[in-house]
Amino acid sequence: MGDRMNVLARRTVQLIVGTMVMLCTGAIYAWSVFVPALQEAFGWNASQTSLVFTFTILFLNIGSFLGGNLVRRLGVRTVIAAGAVMLLIGIAGSSFTSSHAFLVVTFGVLT
Description:
By secondary structure, this protein is mainly alpha-helical. The chain has helices at about 1-25, 30-40, 45-75, 75-95, 100-110.
């Protein structure tokens, strides 16, 4: 009975963590909510703000490919933790932006 409970608990944790990872991945699509405020605050045009999102999608794909390969060597927990740290640094760094290039690096590359 105890072994069966351990399997159930492990699967429940995996379900919760997997759901959180998918929510974080989907959060990048909230970018469109911030575009009007960025354009107004910094005077950026649509092509400048679109470039940030282009980098975000590009590095999402690169990160997915690299992360999938790193899982074999480092393990799932390490890769998810590294991704979470990069997401945190990217979003926190984005909140301090005053330049387009800095936003491209923090939000576009790190998140």
